[in-house]
Amino acid sequence: MALEEVTATAYLTPFREGGSMPGLMETDDDGTYVVKFRGAGQGAKVLVSEVIAARLAHTLGLPVPRIVAVHLDAAMAASEPDPDIQDLLKASGGLNLGVDFLPGAVDYDPGGFRTDPALAGRVLWFDALIGNVDRTRRNPNLLRWHGELYLIDHGSSLTFHYNWPSMDKHAERPFNPDGYVLLNDEDEPAPDVAAADAELAPLLTEEAVRAAVDDVPDEWLYEPGAGPAELRERYVRFFGQRLAAREKWVTELISR
User: Fold this and answer.
1) Distance from C-alpha of 196 to C-alpha of 129, rounded to nearest angstrom
2) 3-class secondary structure, 50
3) Is 20 buried (19+), middle (13-18) or exposed (0-12) by CB count in 10 A?
4) Are 151 and 250 within one domain?
5) d(Cα 43, Cα 73) in Å, to the nearest integer?
6) Is the domain of 141 the same as that of 246?
7) What range defines the domain where residue 53 resides?
8) Cα atoms in the 13 Å half-sphere on the side-chain side of 209
């Protein structure tokens, strides 16, 4: 299914923790979303990573907030007094990514929560699949909301698309879990990566991967000499290679 499209109606507040400065916005579906802007310094490829990761996570039964495509009228910048926000909104006219705001959610604290080894194994396997190294104790990118764990912020994954000739190497590259937030202390059970591999790998058929990639809006897919159709095929091909090579990276994770 394609991303649902909504229209931004109000800019509420920025989130200044990260370099891309997403903003909390209201939209015409009466929703409130953390909006990640195409005009931020990292560009639209971050949004591509977010969509593919969120859709694959959903296919695997991993909890992620709902995502939408947010239409933004660059004229909204005129009402913002902060010049940095003005520039960001002006550069982000068109479609941006909205992540459902989870009011009252708290950051995951590895010292305050115990995580089921089965769930930890599934999350670790997923992050290894997409190459997401941005889930550390310092920056877990996990939220606790209504007693459930939610995975957020996958823009740092799929980094091969910044250098397409490196894709084949990335597909076989082991995952380095040093500092990974769900690798528990020695007195706690380790993430059950072997069970996760047996459960999750069969779910990622070519059809499932293609469906996730197809949800990326065409206007975020651009590269000199390659249009959206060609780029979609590249992403599908990467995941085929990554899954074919999983014995290598799964075995290494299990041995950690």
Assistant:
1) 12
2) helix
3) middle
4) yes
5) 18
6) yes
7) 5-100
8) 20
3-state helix, strand, coil in the chain (%, to 5): 40, 20, 40
Count the helices and strands in the chain (H runs, E runs): 8, 8
Weakest-pLDDT range from 17-31, 55-69, 91-105, 223-237: 17-31
pLDDT digits (tens, 9 = 90+) for 190-209: 899 999 999 999 999 999 99
Q: Is the pLDDT of residue 18 over 80?
A: no
Residue at token pair 């800019």 = 11
Residues 164 and 221 in one domain: yes
Last residue of a domain, one of 39, 70, 100: 100
User: What are the tens digits of pLDDT across the range 29-71?
Assistant: 999 999 999 999 889 999 999 999 999 999 999 999 999 999 9
Residue with structure tokens 């002006």? 90
Q: How many domains does the chain have?
A: 2
Query: In what helix (H) or strand (E) does residue 145 lie, and over which residues does it extend?
Result: strand 142-145
